[in-house]
Amino acid sequence: VDAVRVYVNSSSENLQYPVLFVVRQQKGVLSWQVPLIFRGLYQRTYNYQEVSRTLCPSEPTPETGPSDQIIFVDVSSMAPFNVAYELLVTRLENFQLETNKAFNFTASPSQPQYFLYKFPQDVDSVIIKVVSDAVYPCSVVSVQDIVCPVYDLDHNVEFNGVYQSMTKQAAITVQRKDFPGEQFFVVFVIKPEDYACGGSVPSSIHGNVNRTWNLQRMKNLQVTIVPSIKKSVYVQAMFFSFLSFLSFYLGSVVVAFVHYISTDMKLTVPFGSVSIAGSGIMTSSHPITASTPEGSSYGAIDESGSSGGHQLSSPERGPPAGSDTDSSVEEESDFDTMPEIESDKNVIRTKVFLYLSDLSRKDRRIVSKKYKIYFWNIITIAVFYALPVIQLVITYQTVVNVTGNQDICYYNFMCAHPLGVLSAFNNILSNVGHMLLGFLFLLIVLRRDILHRRAMEMKDVYTLDYGIPKHFGLFYAMGIALMMEGVLSACYHVCPNYSNFQFDTSFMYMIAGLCMLKLYQTRHPDINASAYSAYASFAVVICLAVLGVVFGKNDMWFWVIFSMIHVLASLALSTQIYYMGRFKIGKFSDLGIFRRAAMVLYTDCIQQCSRPMYMDRMVLLIVGNLVNWSFAIFGLVYRPRDFASYILGIFICNLLLYLAFYIIMKLRSSEKLLPIPLFCIVATAVVWAAALYFFFQTLSSWEETPAESREKNRQCILLGFFDDHDIWHFLSAAALFFSFLVLLTLDDDLDAVRRDKIPVF
């Protein structure tokens, strides 16, 4: 293919009488003026007296064979005086780019460059890699079909094909199927200003409009076109993704089989440790009804228990274990609205030393139903949240494909493998682990739930007041949340950018919140938050996250309000936790609220400052408040742009703090960690450490311009298909799975311990 380049130069700087050049070819016309004028922000103009353009090449046809090109160059000017100009026409020697061969060249705003590339016979996809030693001037790389004219100036380069801005690095994946002629042009344009690439924004009042720029914005570039991966790599990556996580299923089946054998296939062992797929036998508490027999103390110790053990008095028996428990008469309010019960709550929950039997007095069936609401509500939330998200990201991907603007989405373009309409299939595929492991966790919880029910049917559950009460509703909700995190993370990675990052984090908030609720519910089953209040709180957090995305970048007022809400919410939650939900402030219309608050502050913080009534809780809450206040001050001072990650950091730090406190208090209470939960804790720590290492290998950042983000792009590191962030997806899914197993198995050592011997902390 022969290509011709025309160079013109004029010494005239008179903008009123420019020199006009018109080049006529067999299939097109190309024209420009000298001085060539480019426009920027605030109507600033940049004049160039030297212009060089490549003419649309003509390719010999089989019928005619090689022939000479006939080109007409018309030069004219309306100037009333003579204007000197220089015209030079040259033949390009290296117009066609070769595979795996680097080519160096120079370009400027008035001297753009473009080259031809033809697909080899055995290559279906290539990656165009462009590098430069200099960050600025800002440039644009475009891939266009073989059509004349070629759009190679700043004001029209976006009219055709696929394009992306560039500072030091760019990469575009091109597939043979998108070009029927199996060839395309690679166009390189230098922009007159750098603001699009993160450079300084030009002032509207500085600068000389008649200034001639010419050679001041030259940029050296190197382009290399390499073959992309073959279809077999896609198949290998899919097999690797699914088989890696299906191995977790195999491991769970082996553990479940070992547990099945160890229990002699009949669950004849009444107490003892259980595995991750075990049943957790003996969980029901004694139901406490509305009235207490006269002469007995509510929750008093009965010395007449068998085998010399202490047993809580059971005023009335509930219905048999196998009876129907779906009656609408049995509501939680039946236990909370009666004055006697309220009085007992105040007496029991404000004791200095609390045991699990004090906080597991409600009917097991009703409490289980309460926690099952978490499961059904999160399914509803997931459906209503996910459907609009899927529709939106499909629209994003469609816009990218139709317009060709690859600055919309922040991919790792050095390792972005398209499939169908998706631009980065590898980032989507790597989220399959969340869905597979979330479903596996649901199966494990279901098995424990079924075995627990069978064990209860085989025994008189109301004479067995042992172990942590088994309520599985929150575990089911956690499994659904893990699966939805995979779905929404995949949706975010369809087109990752600043506007839809909240899709990737919304269910992370819910996972962290549900884990904290589950940890608290373990030893506070009667006073844990209801599903409605919990999800309402998550909704408030997501609303704040949206407001942070919109207003959190520069608005100081938003950070002041958010920090106040954060601190006040921490104090309010601390009060509820410290007093086990028994701190009542009364009606806001009652002026005595201030007197009561002052009295509580005086008695608990001044009179007993040296020794709080609940020392362990006080230590946890002081540390927790210091951590949260530190987050609030940090946000107020630095105002991070990534507000969604900032909120997620608050959730994760609070969860880790509470989990560490729980484990420390468990060991301090002479409880032990069985091999399975100990293994899960170690696995969680190791996998999280590895996952976070890859997470902090930043491959792109929507906090910067698309061109600056591409400077962070890196090559694939696993199977030639997955990058560092994909490995983060794999490892974080496994880490979350192990984290859930820690919560599921942490207290299995207490299945043979009476509840009036299990401390509350």
UniProtKB/TrEMBL annotation:
Transmembrane segment boundaries: 237-261, 374-394, 428-446, 474-495, 501-520, 532-551, 557-579, 618-637, 643-664, 676-696, 727-746
Membrane protein topology class: Multi-pass membrane protein
Keywords: Glycoprotein, Membrane, Signal, Transmembrane, Transmembrane helix
Biased composition (Acidic residues): 327-336
GO cellular component terms, semicolon-separated: lysosome; plasma membrane
InterPro entries the UniProt entry points to: SID1_TM_fam
Keyword Glycoprotein attributed: yes
Gene Ontology molecular-function annotations: double-stranded RNA binding; RNA transmembrane transporter activity
Pfam families: SID-1_RNA_chan
Key word Protein biosynthesis present: no
Region feature Disordered, mapped onto this chain: 290-336
Location within or outside the cell: Membrane
Family: Belongs to the SID1 family.
Entry protein name: SID1 transmembrane family member 1
